[in-house]
Amino acid sequence: MIRVVIVDDEPLSRDELAHLLSEYKDMEVVGQAGSGEEGLELSLKLSPDVLFLDIEMAEMSGVELAKSLQQLKKVPAVVFATAYPDYAVNAFRLEALDYLLKPFDEEQLEETVERIRSLHKTAPETPSKKVSRLAVEHDETIIYLTPEEIDYCFREGKETKVCTRERCYSSRLTLRELEEKLGAHSFFRTHKGYLVNLEQVESLTPWLNGAYQVKMRGGTDDIPVSRNYVKELRQKLEL
């Protein structure tokens, strides 16, 4: 598990980033701080693996905090998260792992997570226990689906949808929780917001900027595949 601390003086930005990171089951947000000073205290106390730092903060800026972190026995990786692109040069002079611009782009965050994983040589864990049925809802009725019936799952706003060939159902679980439950079956995360059943994939088509689209057997929806997952997806499909 990769331990994360978020340092930002805007509570909404902290909450948004924490929510986005919660979708990655190997990323654990262990603390949040509203100032550079508090961020330094949390770093000393919690020894995180990575800090997401805002730059423009009162008293101690993110850049100043990043410099102070270099004095720690365990120096965490730093990802600057800011609305100001002009600080990029200074950020990389401090050997920042990455530089995220607000508002957060999910594709860019996904690339950042991959860099963090590469640094720590970790990957999402695959559960060994298989679930036999999954509870979903439709018209106030609870329905139990077998994993084999499910084509794909996706996140729509604050709702999670589980789709078969016939229709899409609602699930009370997050996409991250579904990935944990279905990971022992042939399910694969193709995108920040999509989880697909590899047994039901019919085709894989190039799309934009190195990304691809997946089409399911008997389906009409095009499901996005982020470029970071294309290589692994092809390996799994071609076994």
**What is the helix tally?**
7
Could you describe the largest sheet, including whether it forms a barrel? 5 strands, parallel
Morphology: elongated
- The whole-number mean of residue pLDDT values reads 86
Q: Going across the major beta sheet, what is the strand order?
A: 2-1-3-4-5
Report strand %. 25-35%
Report the end-to-end length measured between terminal Cα atoms. 28 Å
Succession of helices and strands: EHEHEHEHEHEEEEEHEEEEEH
Radius of gyration: 20 Å
**Can you tell me the residue ranges where pLDDT is under 50 for at least 5 consecutive residues?**
none
Q: Descriptors for this entry?
A:
alpha/beta, 5-stranded antiparallel beta sheet, 7 helices
Structure overview:
- It is a single chain.
- The protein has seven helices and 15 strands.
- With 239 residues, the chain is α/β, with parallel strands linked by helices.
- The strands form four sheets. A five-stranded parallel β-sheet has the order 2-1-3-4-5, sandwiched between helices.
- Helix 4 links the parallel strand 4 and strand 5.
- Helix 2 runs parallel beside helix 3.
- The radius of gyration is 20 Å and the shape is elongated.
Which helices and strands, and how do they pair?
Elements: E1 2-7, H1 11-21, E2 27-33, H2 36-46, E3 50-53, H3 62-69, E4 77-82, H4 88-93, E5 98-101, H5 106-120, E6 134-138, E7 141-145, E8 152-156, E9 159-163, E10 168-171, H6 175-182, E11 187-191, E12 194-197, E13 201-206, E14 212-216, E15 222-225, H7 227-237
Parallel strand pairs: 1-2, 1-3, 3-4, 4-5
Antiparallel strand pairs: 6-7, 8-9, 8-12, 9-10, 11-12, 13-14, 14-15
Helix pairs in contact: 2-3
